[in-house]
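For the sake of clarity, the format in which proteins appear in this thesis is described at this point. The record quoted next illustrates the convention:

___
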Amino acid sequence: MKKLILLVLLATLTGCAALSRPEVTVNAIAAPDADQYKTYVMMPADEKSRGLEFDQYVALVDQALAEKGFIKVNEISQANIAIGLTTNVGDAKATTNSGVIPQWGQTGYRSAQTYGSVVGNQYQANTYYTPTYGVTGYMPYSNTVTYYPIGFALGAWAKTADGKDIRQVWNIVASGNSRNGDLRSAFPKMLRAAMPYIAGDSKGMIKITVPNN
């Protein structure tokens, strides 16, 4: 069962895209009877995930599940679903934006007026020009931003009616972009964005704006 959870969750996270921007992409799906399964045991999808940081993620997930009425147990024999968690920090990617910036300045003169006067036996004249302004040229610019795709997947499995196999009850994937690849600081916000859709159906991929606080 653990191997199946590992394969499904890692496959789900593969290719997760676009928290350099405060935006999380959430994709959730659930079986029609998902609400019937509330007692769970938690296990990492990848045994290599075990560690202090992963334990923090699990604690946050347990808290979110408790708020939605789930009950955690320690033995799989006491649970009606097994929930697997896997996280992902992808390799650095770069995106470049380029274009031109208009330069503003004097383009010529709209009119000219000459004023003269006689001083003694001499005539003195001064001409005043009214300038016009507009775009005088363009300055090119280029900006490269490096980011890391980050995300997590949370899935629940239950035994089939005959008890001979397992089936997926629900699955949720949350992904985003981080400028430094720090999933630890981004995870609470991403989980909060995804929480309303745990054990539910998002009807496809949706984008959720994450508050800064």
